[in-house]
Amino acid sequence: MLVSELMERSPISVAPEDTCRDAARLLSRYRVGALPVANADGKLKGILTDRDIILRCLAMGKDPDKTPVRDCMTRNPITVSPRDRVETAAERMSRSQVRRLPAAEGGKLAGMLSLGDLSRVEAFRMEAARTLAEISQGVQRLAPP
Fold it and tell me: For the whole model, what pTM was predicted?
């Protein structure tokens, strides 16, 4: 099975110039833990998690109403191609200790794949559980493939 068959094809995203407050509202409204960051032409610039906002904005004493996403996002996120196999994506999540992967095609945001997406397919429930266990146990981070 390919990533394109499971990924969210129209993920909610933010722009680098949006504020952390705006991003936090989107995270809350859509009940997600991460947002891909893309510019107006769809080029993937990074990923912003709820944890990024807490640690890189609030904990640093920055004003979320004035702090742009670009100041808190993770640049050069680990990605997956929509044409990759789901097993490859799960391995990448495990190695990189992340629960969500932006799917990019030619540098542009094409979708978002999460462990939750994997767990909704019977054939990948064990893979998702194993990946989550490895992430939770703090498997040593390896360089992405």
Answer: 0.80
